Amino acid sequence: MELHVYKNADELSQAVASWMAGSIADTLKKQDRFTIALSGGSTPRLLHKILAAPPYKDQIEWSKLHVFWGDERDVPFEDDRNNAKMAYDTLLNFVPVPAAQIHIMRTDIGPVESAAEYEKILQAYFDKSPGSFDLVLLGMGDDGHTLSLFPGTAAVHEEKAWTIAYFLKAQDMYRITLTKTIVNRAARVAFLTTGTGKAHALKEVLKGAYNPDLYPSQEIKPVPGELHWFVDEAAAAELE
Q1: Closest C-alpha to 205, from 175, 231, 167, 170
Q2: 182 with 76: CB under 8 angstroms?
Q3: What is the rounded end-to-end Cα distance, in angstroms, of the chain?
Q4: Number of helices (H) and strands (E), helices first, in the chain?
Q5: Is 84 helix (H, G, I), strand (E, B) or coil?
Q6: N or C: which end of the chain has fewer CB within 10 A?
Q7: In the chain, what are the domain boundaries?
Q8: Looking at the DSSP assignment, which residues form a beta bridge with residue 167?
Q9: 18: left (phi over 0), alpha (psi -120 to 50) or beta
Q10: What are the Cα distances from residue 144, in Å, to 58, 155, 219?
């Protein structure tokens, strides 16, 4: 695990954009596609806007990217809470990724059906490979959740399915999510974590006792892939 600490969200986002561009370029020297799972939440918005503008808009070989999502709320695509909509509004509408290579988690069908359909897409990409994504971008909530793996839910412990849907009582909605099983096969996983609200959870996830029922982010341990935490000083405040 590598921890990278930056002064604020702006510096962090610039650093992650540069790191991503380098990772994409290095990977495409060895293979003809780069698979990435995007995150929802507020932190990636800034990153997306940096990637969608020069120099990265011109540097990255967008035509070779295959885009996925880590999780989704079961709300219509037009809803501002929809993670795919956010990614289109801030990134995908501005870079030339072929439409056929963008795989949203559908919310125009039932959530369980959507999860099953997404798993089939993932199987088509990764079934014959010991690995999975070239990069998974993740956020972490104030409560230590990541993806839609929330504290105290069975989703945290899913071992077989790569994608599941379940009803989250606390939010009164269905969530569709990748599981640790597929994410932990990724070549690189990067958490983007900013703000004082994340400080306690970050300390517990990185330094505390192993208790994924309280802090599900502890379950993300890519083997043999890389795990990176990109955090700002506010989020790192409780780390020694």
Answers
A1: 231
A2: no
A3: 16
A4: 7, 9
A5: helix
A6: C
A7: 2-232
A8: 174
A9: alpha
A10: 35, 14, 11
- pLDDT in the model for residue 6: 98
Q: What is the pLDDT of residue 185?
A: 97
Report d(CA 144, CA 63) in Å as an integer: 34
| Other Cβ atoms within 10 Å of 119 Cβ, number | 17
Instruction: Give 14-22's long-range contacts (Cβ < 8 A, gap of 24+).
Output: 14/50, 15/230, 16/47, 16/190, 16/192, 16/230, 17/47, 17/50, 17/51, 17/56, 19/190, 19/228, 19/230, 20/51, 20/56, 20/60, 20/135, 21/56, 21/59, 21/60
pLDDT mean values, one per 10 residues, the chain (240 residues): 98 98 98 97 93 98 98 97 97 98 98 98 94 98 97 97 97 97 98 97 98 98 96 96
Helices (H), 41-198: 43-51, 56-59, 83-87, 111-126, 180-183
The pLDDT of residue 240 is 80
What are 62's two structure tokens? 């967008």
Q: Which two tokens stand for residue 231?
A: 């955090």
Q: How far out from the chain centre does Cα 64 lie?
A: 19
Any idea which fold 2-232 has? Rossmann fold (3.40.50)
Phi-psi region of 41 (alpha: psi -120 to 50; beta: other; left: phi over 0): left
Structure tokens at 112: 């369980």
The number of angstroms, rounded, from the C-alpha of 43 to the middle of its chain's C-alpha atoms is 11
Encoding tokens for residue 115? 């999860």
